[in-house]
Amino acid sequence: MLYGREPEQALIDRMLADGRAGLSGSLVLSGDVGTGKSALLAFAADRASGARVVRVAGVEAEARLPFAGLHLLLRSVADRVEALPASQREVLRDPLGTGVSGPEECVRVGLAVLALLSGTGCDGRLAVLIDDAQWLDGPSAEALLFAARRLEAGGTTMIFAGRGGDGFPAQGLPSRVLGPLDAEAAAGLLDERHPDLSPWVRERLLREAAGNPAALVALPAALTDRERTGGLFPPAGPVGLDRFPAEWRGAFDAQVAGLPAATRALLLLAALDDRGELGVLVCAGRRLGASVGDLEAAEQGGLIEVRDRRLVFRNPLLRAAIAAASSLPRRSAAHEALAAAYGDERDAERRAWHLAAGAVEADEELAAALARTAGRARASA
User: Is residue 265 located within the same domain as residue 373?
Assistant: First the structure.
């Protein structure tokens, strides 16, 4: 069951119904990592009864190889290529070796793809589902979008799913942006997948996941049984840091790698402290050679927002990814800087936790401070 995506599911069902009536249509699903794009493509594949489902995914390593993406599509519909007129068949015979460069040749490829998807000389409907469209090479994307804008008859349903922003510009096509789930849908998803969470751990996860479906599933799955009941649960740092899925890190590395070192330092501070209070982060940042102006690059890149003097990550998974990708010395230094910024007695618990998180060896004074904060927490419970 997909929570909170009923409008998109209804739209896909209408498109597939139009396909059964002989009409074609296209759709672009865009959104950040973990918002459910791939899940909606899987939904479309399950609902495409009577249609031939063709699934293609862009590959980052092949994003600079001309027509690499189109080649993946053609392998799945080789019989349809053979049914095309000779001139169009020749254009698509070996897209990797065509050497297409000029506008006229690109149009020829686009027209051949349009004929292929429209079913010229073929029987049966198609449901073409393209995931990670942001990694399609330029010529493949141009050819597929050229065809998608001109599909009318033939019963072909074409759905692209790609990252938001400029990752996959698809002007001229119907589109839906997948944002965070609302509170009810987020709670429903979390409770279905992880019904054994203690109430306060549940509330913390709902807050930390910020409506991101993948975060709602993955972050609690990374917890130990003891953490699920509230024992040893991190009071400030990101959930499941040591068990953050490695395959997701690459989705965020490129967004952060090109930022100035001072900006990355501030983002790490924000990743390690869930409050995101701008004053605390700036104070801690000074100890690491960063200032509030260094946040501008991250804001312009759409990675963060500042709301009511709090820094908020646009994608909650980015927060965990930044922390998980940092080295132990950098995390220790960041925790120490945050502990120094929490000098007020009212924040003694948080200060002690950051000192403990940044420690690399036993410290009796620190252990005593943790014991005192634990005692205060028990007394106020």
Answer: yes
Q: How far apart are CA 18 and CA 7, in angstroms?
A: 17
Q: What does pTM read for this prediction?
A: 0.81
pLDDT digits (tens, 9 = 90+) for 318-331: 888 888 888 889 99
Amino acid at residue number 375? G
Helix axes of 278-287 and 261-272: crossing angle, nearest 10 degrees? 130
- Helix (H/G/I), strand (E/B), else coil: 277: strand
Task: Please tell me whether residues 156 and 279 are part of one structural domain.
Answer: no
* 370 and 239 assigned to the same domain: yes
CA 286 to chain centroid: 31
**HSE-CB for 287 with a 13 A CA cutoff:** 17
The H or E element that residue 238 is part of is: none
DSSP annotation of 54 reads E
**Which CATH number goes with the domain that contains 73?**
3.40.50.300
Instruction: Please say which residue of 178, 213, 247 terminates a domain.
Output: 178
Domain membership of residue 154 (yes or no) is: yes
Classify residue 101 by its DSSP letter. Answer: -
pLDDT tens column, 265-324: 999 999 999 889 999 999 999 999 999 999 999 999 889 999 889 999 988 888 888 888
126-154 pLDDT, tens digit each: 999 999 999 999 889 999 999 999 998 88
Q: Using CA atoms, how far apart are residues 292 and 262, in angstroms rounded to an integer? A: 10
Q: Which structural domain range is residue 313 located in?
A: 234-380
The answer to whether residues 31 and 177 touch, using CB atoms and an 8 Å cutoff, is: yes
Same domain, 27 and 174: yes
Specify if 215 maps to a domain: no
Cβ(41)–Cβ(157) under 8 Å? no
Cβ proximity of 33 and 248 under 8 Å:
yes
* Structural domains of the chain, count: 2
168 — pLDDT class (breaks 50, 70, 90):
confident
